[in-house]
Design a protein that fits this description.
The complex is a heterodimer of chains A (115) and B (115). Chain A is mostly beta strands and 115 residues long. Chain A contains no helices and 12 strands. Chain B is built from no helices and 11 strands. Classes of the chains: A mainly beta (115), B mainly beta (115). At the A-B interface, strand 5, strand 6, strand 10 and strand 11 of A face strand 5, strand 9 and strand 10 of B.
Chain lengths: 115, 115
């Protein structure tokens, strides 16, 4: 079965430190990869995507993600965390050949940035 | 520009009842998808509609149905509600035909509570 794993339920980082939120996937072919963020009582906001090309993609709010095909990973990173980055982060994958644009989602990682 | 809008914001229903949730996509977006997000989990794909036709369906029972109108707005209907249907229902829209069509834009969701 196709799946997306976010191995950490919660990540704690001090403000100003670099952060990483991990994502691995088990999907056939060359999927499209996405990161979304969800703030309390709000919908999901698109952060960035990898479709093809450079393995390091840059997105909104200073976030970036590194695609590693051999490790089937797509980790979210930011060089210097802000308290306002505290939120719930979701990794999502669209399998190749899925014309329905169905996204398979991870369970989410709660990111807490401490002042 | 207005984002994806959903109504109502919150809803409380009793087991066995029927519910209709509504979604208006971003202007110019012709594709709408519905997701169910249970507390503590990632979203689960329910339906995708494009040009008023169902283009994809997730693993949900026939109690769940949807439709898309000529103005591209959409309704999600759930019959014979069960306690397990309590969740945040998210609507997402996207444009089509370009690279940017791979990302979906989400509404704030409708919180459904079944008692």
């Amino acid at each position: 079965a196709q799946s997306v794993a976010q191995p950490e339920d919660q990540v704690n980082v001090a403000e100003g430190n670099p952060l990483t939120v991990k994502c691995t996937y088990s999907v056939s072919g060359n999927p499209y990869l996405f990161w979304y963020v969800q703030y309390p009582n709000r919908g999901l906001q698109f952060l960035l995507k990898y479709i093809t090309g450079d393995n390091l993609v840059k997105g909104s709010y200073g976030f970036e993600a590194e695609f590693n095909k051999s490790q089937t990973s797509f980790h979210l990173k930011k060089p210097s965390a802000l308290v306002s980055d505290s939120a719930l982060y979701f990794c999502a994958v669209r399998p190749t050949g899925d014309s329905n644009y169905q996204l398979i989602w991870g369970a989410g990682t709660k990111l807490i940035i401490k002042p | 520009d207005a984002g994806v809008t959903q109504s109502p914001t919150h809803l409380i229903k009793t087991r066995g009842q029927h519910v209709t949730l509504r979604c208006s996509p971003i202007s110019g977006h012709k594709s709408v998808s519905w997701y169910q997000q249970v507390l503590g989990q990632g979203p689960q794909f329910i339906f995708q509609y494009y040009e008023k036709e169902e283009r994809g369906r997730g693993n949900f029972p026939d109690r769940f149905s949807a439709r898309q109108f000529p103005n591209y707005s959409s309704e999600l209907n759930v019959n014979a509600l069960l306690l397990g249907d309590s969740a945040l229902y998210l609507c997402a829209s996207r444009t089509t035909g370009t690279w940017s069509s791979y990302e979906q834009y989400f509404g704030p969701g409708t919180r459904l509570t079944v008692t």
